[in-house]
Structure formats: structure tokens, C-alpha cells
Amino acid sequence: MANSVLYKNPILFAVVVTVVVLIGTVVTLFYPMMTAEMHPKLEGLKPYTPLELAGKDVYQQEGCIGCHTQTVRPLKAEVLRYGEYSKAGEFAYDQPFLWGSKRTGPDLARIGGKYPDAWHQMHFEDPQSFFAESNMPKYGWLKNNKLNPSDVEAHMKALGFPYKPDEITALNGKSELDALVAYMQVIGTAVKKPAAQTE
């Protein structure tokens, strides 16, 4: 009897179908998004420091994502070349994500701690002195661009990252190149390296 009423009244039928679809959508899509399991964090993951966050901003401003990815796919060739494949919990503090999709340059997902700061500074100043075929532009001029501590502090507050006043004060005199190197040194460091790669 109830079925025949629904079929005879198309408006009522449309309303019932819409309500059922909306309930199904909320239960299967939106509710799980609010659970902690959908927002994992790796055990060793820490929020960015002010200098690292400033470096992430420089990375975005200079368009580095156009040539470098920051995600290792779970393919044997990629894992052998770049290291442990990327985990969802690595990116809990990345707003926005900088995974990228084009590899004109190498993937940077496991670059953190791989080279000393001086290596990164020299590489940014003259990439071709390291790899003659590299078409990466020179970024040495970034050392002349000083960071604005109040801008960095505002960004830390906007993202809800913890910081100490002395960390903001320590940004005085730091350059965009210093910040970019600090960011390079933290990328992918939350993932524990397999014993064979730990040296």
C-alpha cells in the first residue's frame, strides 16, 4: 500500500529518494571524514617550525612544485630510487599538499637529512655545478631576500601551529634561502628509514 502511494505521487517519491540518498551520503562519506582514523599522523611527525614553514612558503612561491613531486608511489622502482613509499600520516600538517605530478627534477619526498645544509645552499646557488644537465634555475638571489618575522608569525597562527616568541625573534636576519634549506631538511623525516638505509 505504501509503495503504491509513492509510485502514484512523483513528488513524494522524489523527496523520499533524496532523503535516503542524503542519509546514505552522510553515513558513508561525511561521518567517516570526522573520525580520527581518517586523519592519521605518523608518530614522529611534528608541526613545522617558523623557519620551516617560511621555507615551505618560498617553495610554493618559486613554483618548485612544477618540477618536483613530494610523494613516492608504492612501486618497486620508486621505492628503490627514492626510499620508503609515502604514507597518508606524513602530510597531516601540509596545508596545502605539495605532492605534485611532474618530475622534471627528482622527487623530494625523502630529501630531508640526506645532504648537509651547505650542500643545499650550494645547489640552490648553482644547480648546474652539481648536475650539468639540470635545467633548474639558480636561486642564489634568495639569500638577499630577508624574511619578515611578523608575516611568518601570522601564518603560524592561521594554521594553528605552536611556536615560541624566541623562534619568531630568531627569524631576524634569516633569508628566504635559509628558510628553503630548513624546509628541505624536514621533508620526509617523519618516516623511519629501513635498517639497510640507516647510515
Total individual domains: 2
Bin the helical content: 40-55%
Number of helices: 8
Oligomer: single chain
Structural class: mainly alpha
Distance between the ends: 74 Å
Contiguous runs where pLDDT drops below 50 for at least 5 residues: 195-199
Q: Into which percentage range does the β-strand content fall?
A: under 5%
The gyration radius over C-alpha positions equals 23 Å
Any idea what the CATH architecture of the largest domain is? Orthogonal Bundle
CATH top level class name of the largest domain: Mainly Alpha
3D architecture notes:
The chain is mainly α. It folds into two domains: 2-38; 50-194, Cytochrome c-like domain (Cytochrome Bc1 Complex, Chain D, domain 2). 43% of the residues lie in helices and 0% in strands. It is built from eight helices and no strands. It is elongated and about 80 Å long. The N and C termini lie far apart (74 Å).
How do the helices and strands line up, and which of them pair or pack?
Blueprint (H helix, E strand, L loop, with lengths): L1 H7 L1 H24 L16 H12 L14 H7 L34 H9 L23 H11 L5 H5 L6 H11 L13
Helix pairs in contact: 3-6, 3-8, 5-8
Labels describing this entry:
8 helices; disordered C terminus; elongated; 199 residues
In summary, what is this structure?
This protein folds into two domains: 2-38; 50-194, Cytochrome Bc1 Complex, Chain D, domain 2 (Orthogonal Bundle).
